Model the fold of this input.
Amino acid sequence: MNIAVPTLYDLKDFIIANPTYFNEDEKISITQYLQNTTEKYADGKYWLKGQLQLSPNDEITNEKMNEAEEIDKRRQIEYGGPCNGLEAASIRQHTYKFENLKKVIIKYYHLLEEEYLRPPDVNDPSDKGGVIYQKLSAETLVGKNVI
Done:
């Protein structure tokens, strides 16, 4: 199944289109990442888990998520823990946003997969079902009354 890899902008739009599927922490995290891009020092970018600089138009791939986590682990080892309360709070905030971003991405793929595989609505004759369902229906016996 070819579900597009989301960008930060895609996730924002997806949350707007499906608001009841996401909790407030997840919505806030995406909003905070977007707000980070407007800071004077950010040059229109944000830092994934506070470690990997991305544009809101960049795809958020598993590789980038893993890279941000690896950079974070490496820096924890190199620098040790936070040197003061401000730094500790910053690390907690980046971890909070990152964990919620992961939840949003999981939900993004889950909802799109459900939509792609969705059978037609029997009460709506114009509904042909999801993209993958339509393809399976055209190529197989799926959705056909065969005895």
Remarks:
- The chain has a mean pLDDT of 89.
- DSSP finds five helices and two strands in the chain.
- Residues 8-120 form one domain.
- The chain has one domain: 8-120.
